[in-house]
Amino acid sequence: MWTCKMGKWVKWLGMGIVLVAIPSVAFADWVDVLRKFRPRISVQEDYTSNLDLTRDNTREDFITTVSPGLGFRATENRDARLGLDLDYALGLVSYAHNSQLNYVSHTGTLNTWYSFGNRWTLRLWDSYTRSQDPVEQYITVQPQPGVYYPGTQRERFTYERNIVQPSLTYQFGREDRFDLSYQNNYYNTQNPVGDDSLGHNVTPRLTYWFNIRHGITLEYAFQIVDYDFEPDLTEHRGRGRYTYRFSPQTSIFAEYIYDTIAFESPGVDFTVHNPSVGITYAFTPTLTGRLQAGYFWRKPEEGKTTEGPTVDAGITQHTQRLTLDLAVQGGYNYDLFGAETLGFYQYYRGIASIAYLMTQRFTASLMGSVERDDFVDINRKDWVWRAGPTLSYQPWRWLTASLGGTYGQRSSDQDINDYEEWRAFFRLTATYW
C-alpha cells in the first residue's frame, strides 16, 4: 500500500512541474518550441559471439534493431529558471537465428527543473530501460562511463529498470544549500530465477561554507529494499566531509562514512566504517585531477571482518577536440539492484575513456576497463575486462554512421560464471533538423 501511494505521489509531482511550467511558456514562440524537438530513426546491426554469456555451448547471432526516437531540450542554459530535457527511443529488435527472442525495447530519460522564489529549485529525473542485454551499464543521474552492474544474467530474458528521483533544493548562500531527494529504484525481470527488487531511498544533504576556505557537507541516507527471493534490507548511511580550500584551484578534504545494513532473517546484519582524505586540483581550466584514499572495515554480526584500502583517483580533460577520463577506483560497494543481487563486494577497477574529434565530422573513441570483484557473502572472486573502439562519421548534418566493437571477458573462481564475448555493431541514424 505504501509503495503504491509513493508511486502515485511521484507521478503527481512530475505532472505538477509540467503544470507549473505551462504558464511560463504560454506566450512564448511555440514555433520555436516545436523546432527544439528532434525526431530520429536508427538502424543498427549487432554481432555477438556469445549470446548468453556462457562458458560452454556458446551461441553467436546477428541482432537487428530499428529504433525511432525523439529528443527535446528546452534550453542549453543549465542555470535557467525552467528546463526540460527529454529523450526516448523505441527498439524493434529481431534475432537472425533465434527469432523466438524477438522483442520491443524502450530507453527513455527525463530531466526537468523549475526554480521559484530565487532560492528554491524542484527537479525530477527519470530513467527507464526495457532490454535483454545481459551487460548493463550502471545508471545514475551523473553518467559513469565504463562502470557496469557487477552481476549479469545468462540467457536472454527481458527486464525492466526504472529509476525516478525527485529532489528539492534550497540555496541560502552562494555555495550554501540544503538538498532533499527521494529515489525509487525498480527492477523486474522475466528470468524465472532472477530476483526482482524495489528500493526507496530518502537523502537529506547540507552543504555549508563558514567562509571562502572552510566548508562542510553533512548527509544522511535511509533506504529500504524489497526482494522476491533475497531477505529484505534496511540501510542507514551517514557521511560527513570537511573541506579546506587553499585556492580556487586546490582543495583538500577529510571524509567519514558509516553504514548499517539490517536484513530480515536469515540475513546477517553488518556495519561499515570508511574514513578517507583527498585532494582536488585544477591544472588548467580544462584539466582537473583528484585523489582520495582511505580505509574501510566491515564488521558483521556473525563471521569475520572484511577490510581494505579505498581509493578514487582520476584525471579529466575536456577540450574542443579531446575528452579524456582516466580513473582508478576501489574499496567496497553494494550490488542491491543488479541482475544477480550479489550484495556487499570489495572491488578495484581501472577505466580509460578517450574521444577525439579528428575532423569536424569524424570522431574516434576508445573505452577500456578492468575490474576485480570479491563478493564476500557468497565467497566468489571475478576478474572482468572490457575494451573497444568506436568510429563515428557525419557526412551530413542529419545523418550519422557509427562503427565499433567490444571484447568482454569474465574469469571467476566459480567456473560457471566465466565467459568471453566479442561484439561488433554498425549503426545509421537520421535526425530531422
Could you describe the 3D structure shown?
- The protein has 433 residues and is mainly beta.
- The protein has a single domain, classed as Maltoporin, Chain A, CATH 2.40.170.
- The chain has two helices and 20 strands.
- It has helices spanning 2-25, 30-35; strands at 37-48, 61-73, 82-95, 103-116, 120-131, 159-171, 177-189, 197-209, 214-227, 233-245, 250-263, 270-284, 287-300, 306-318, 322-335, 343-357, 362-375, 380-396, 399-412, 419-431.
- It has a 20-stranded antiparallel barrel.
- A hairpin with a 3-residue loop joins strand 14 and strand 15 (322-335).
- The longest helix has 24 residues, at 2-25.
- The protein starts with a helix and ends with a strand.
Radius of gyration of CA atoms, rounded to a whole number: 23 Å
Structural shape:
globular
Q: Helix-strand pattern, N to C? A: HHEEEEEEEEEEEEEEEEEEEE
Number of domains: 1
Poorly predicted sequence stretches spanning 5 or more consecutive residues: 1-6
Give the end-to-end Cα distance, rounded to a whole number of Å: 46 Å
The share of residues in helices is under 10%
Number of helices: 2
Strand content: over 45%
The CATH architecture term is: Beta Barrel
At CATH level 3, the topology is Maltoporin, Chain A
Count of beta strands: 20
Q: What kind of sheet is the major sheet?
A: 20 strands, antiparallel, barrel
CATH classification, class level? Mainly Beta
Q: Averaging pLDDT over every residue, what do you get?
A: 92
Structural class assignment: mainly beta
